[in-house]
TrEMBL record:
Keywords: Cell membrane, Membrane, Transmembrane, Transmembrane helix. It is found in: Cell membrane. It comes from Streptomyces composti. This is DoxX family protein. Belongs to the DoxX family. Its main location: membrane. It comes from the Bacteria. The keyword Cytoplasm does not apply. Pfam families: DoxX. The chain crosses the membrane at residues 12-33, 54-87, 107-127.
Length: 149
């Protein structure tokens, strides 16, 4: 049974990455683009360049999109995990110790989910694997000697 489950691990990881990336990108789209009711619930957006809201939203949208696509997954997840750790400790944790008390569950979960992706990579269905396949295929080809003219 364990072997069977292990054989499906890259696919489960790929689906996990897609779900986390999509949901994370939606947070950024809400704040930057006014999607899903916007940052204020009325379709509004955060002010461009406003610290830290605009930068957090940019990381959420760009990082979430990259994680969703599985493109530069580890680097995008590293930045996103750090952003969520910063959000948790500067916004949520001063309100109360536990995430359930300070409304920081989302930041904590995204931080740990992205942290996991730093070490696991994109899994199946990611563009990282597609490009890695092309690179290794090119490296496997024998080098051609230049033709003398």
């Amino acid at each position: 049974m364990t072997e069977r489950l292990n054989s499906w691990q890259p696919y489960a990881l790929g689906l996990f990455r897609i779900a986390v990336g999509l949901l994370f990108a939606c947070h950024g789209a809400r704040a930057l683009l006014g999607a899903f009711g916007g940052a204020d619930g009325n379709g509004g957006t955060v002010e461009a360049g406003a610290w830290p809201d605009w930068y957090a939203a940019a990381i959420e949208l760009a990082g979430g999109s990259l994680v969703l696509l599985g493109l530069g997954t580890r680097a995008a997840a590293f930045i996103a995990s750090g952003a969520m750790a910063y959000a948790y400790f500067t916004v949520h944790q001063p309100e109360a110790l536990w995430p359930i008390q300070n409304d920081g569950e989302g930041a904590a979960l995204y931080c740990w989910a992205m942290f996991l992706l730093i070490f696991t990579g994109s899994g199946a269905f990611g563009l990282d694997r597609l490009f890695a396949g092309r690179t290794s295929a090119q490296e496997d080809r024998p080098e051609r000697s230049p033709v003398a003219a």
